[in-house]
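Suppose a colleague, Dr. K., hands you the sequence of a protein chain of 368 amino acids and asks what its three-dimensional shape might be. Before reaching for any lab equipment, you can write down a predicted structure in C-alpha cell form. Begin with the sequence itself:
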Amino acid sequence: MASVEFEHVDRIFPDGTRAVADCSMRIEDGELVVVVGPSGSGKSTLLRMVAGLEEITAGTVRIGERVVNALSPQERNVAMVFQDYALYPYLSARGNLEFPLRMRRLSRAEMRRRVERAADLLGIGPLLERLPKQLSGGQRQRVAMGRALVREPSVFLLDEPLSNLDAKLRVQVRAEIGELQARTHTTMIYVTHDQVEAMTLGDRVAVLDRGRVQQVAPPRDLYDRPANAFVAGFIGNPPMNLFPTRLSLDDRGRVVMDLGGQPVPVSGAAAHAAPVTAGIRPESLRLVPAGAADGGAVRGVVEHLEYLGHETQAHVRVATGGDGGVRLVARVQGMPGLAKGEPVGVQIDPDRVHLFGEDGRALGDPRR
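The predicted structure, expressed as C-alpha cells, is then:
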C-alpha cells in the first residue's frame, strides 16, 4: 500500500484541450478518496494518469516515494476497475481472477491462495466456475473487483464502477466497496459523477470542475463549509440555493442582504460594496404561514411541490419587483398541507447563510 501525490499536474491533449490543470493533492496510505465532478471535469483522466494509461503533460505524480511519470502501467503496481467490467467472456470467473496472476507467472499455490482470499472477501466463491454471461451485473462487478484485488496492488483505482447497476444494487455494492476498503486498508481512488456515492464512501472528497481541483475535504466539511460557489451548488441534493445580492446596513445597524427586495439579516458578515452571491441550504429555510411574514420571514409564493414521502421539496418564489424574483427550494419534513400558488413566509437562519465574493470564493476563506 502507498500514498499518491499530485504536484502541479497538467494533462493537455494534442488538440490543445486542457483536461487537468495544475492539480495538487495528496492521498494518504490506506485512504479512500472519491473524485467527483460533472462530465468532462477531468476525473477519469486524473485516474488514468495514476494508472499510466494517460501521459502527464507537466508536473509530478508519486506513488509512495517513487515518481511514476515515466513508468509503464506494469511497473506501478496499481489495479483498475472500469465501469464496463472488462471481463474476458470466454474465461470463467476463476479464470478472470487468475489471468493477471498467470501474466506474472505466479505459482499455482500462490494463485490459489490469492483467488480464494479475494473470493472470500467479495462473497463470490460459489460463482467461480461460471462464465460472465451467467452472472448478474452486480456479480460481474464483484469479479472485476476481485481481479484487481488478487494483484495485491499498492493503489486501487475505480472508474465509475457502479454506473451500469440499477439503483438498488448500487447501494448494496457501494456498501460492499466501503467494507472491502476498511478490511484491506488499501489506498483507493474512486471516480464518480454521483455525489451520493462521493459523500457516503469517501474519507475525503475531491471536487473537480473543468480540470481544476475546487476543494478536497471530508464530506461533512464539504457540505457545511464549501470553499466556493461551484462546490456549494454542486454538492447537495437538492443543491444549495444560490442567488446574487448586496450587503448593507439597516436602520438598526445590522448587516442585511437583499432577497427579492426584502432585507434579511446575515450573521458574521460586514457591509460589502461589491455584489456577492448568497447561498442557503434547503434545510435552512423554514416555511411559515403567510401572516408570519411580519415576524421576520420574507414573503413568497409556492410555485411547485415535489412529494418524496419522507420529505417535500417546496419551490418558492420570493416576491420582488419586475425581475421575476428569487426562486428557492426548501426541504420540508413529511407531506405538509401546502398548495401550489399559496402565499407563505420564508424564515432564514442568519447563521446559516453562506456568502461568496465576485471570484466565487467563500468570503472569509483563508485562501482568499
